[in-house]
């Protein structure tokens, strides 16, 4: 009867995986430079010029001319002859003008202008491909900048995918294409929040990079370093405000977001932990497997005694993985046995390093007053709300603020519900809005 469970548990291999939309075409827009306000300048009197009317006695004249009385002629339209040659000219004064003041009537009148603030130019939304390098591997991603005004620095969010080969859009093509991350980017753009999402190791244009020839050495810390570089890349964009950054993680990406929240600089303004991996990885996998075996038992595929035997075999296998021992799959159904065999293959190092992290412990390192949203869907079979209890308590003890835990009625692991099977469910959008628009 074990083969009857196969169809039920095969989906588990992507249990904590989350799927990302085709990258929008890049548009580059020119920004007009605001006009510069002008200001007139006052004319300055030469420091060696005598006050009052200017004379020609300071000029170097031939002796005969110097001994004769000097005459000045006024010109109706131009300067006097002396004004053309005198290095320190003074214009003639008006009859009603006090002596000693230069005549400015014949000069063009200048008006002092008050500086004014030019109307900022509206820059249209743009999407561009972006790259960054971590540990010698070039990572490819999509940066979306919403419509904004010239010079405006926007809030921005780093989007992190779940486990498995999940690309920048939240997809594992061709089998699974829910576009989870690209839809999150669209939702945040409507709130004028820029986003960066990227192809993590083993996906999209990034591929395995320097791990191509030795994939067994790829561990979870490598993914954390990659995400940290992505955060720094987003921080350094000319359109983003480095002091109002968010990290939005889905499933395993939420655990990565939690870890980055206490290490990156500057610290993020807020975290969105969407259907998070809130337990140690192997504990979560054991919980998921036992839940599916229990459902198969309810459907009559296993007897209660067989269920107890399988549950015990799962616990034994988990212990073997944690102590780096071979896994005995004798009492496991074939589908579950294949899963544990895969955990001992090239992905063994990743499994062990991910499982070494207890999510509630990481919450203690968060900066107090960090805004945190934690969601759990009532229809999420992979991350039940009960699995987030310890993490929720730890976040509260860390004195984080924000929406906290928000249950999502009828929402599954991919953030959909029955009436929105291909788009983000309304409760998801409402929860995000609570994070991005805090109440006074």
Automatic annotation (TrEMBL):
SUPFAM superfamilies linked to this entry: alpha/beta-Hydrolases (SSF53474)
Gene3D superfamilies in UniProt: alpha/beta hydrolase (3.40.50.1820)
Biased composition (Polar residues): 69-94
Gene Ontology terms, MF aspect: carboxylic ester hydrolase activity
Superkingdom to which the source organism belongs: Bacteria
First and last residue of the signal peptide: 1-22
Composition bias type Low complexity, residue spans: 19-40, 110-125
Residue ranges with Basic and acidic residues bias: 100-109
Boundaries of every AB hydrolase-1 domain copy: 158-421
UniProt key word Hydrolase: yes
Region listing for Disordered, in residue ranges: 19-125
Alphabetical keyword list: Hydrolase, Signal
Comp. bias (Basic residues): 41-51
PANTHER family per the UniProt record, alphabetical: ESTERASE ESTD
Name used for this protein in its record: Alpha/beta fold hydrolase
Organism: Streptomyces acidiscabies
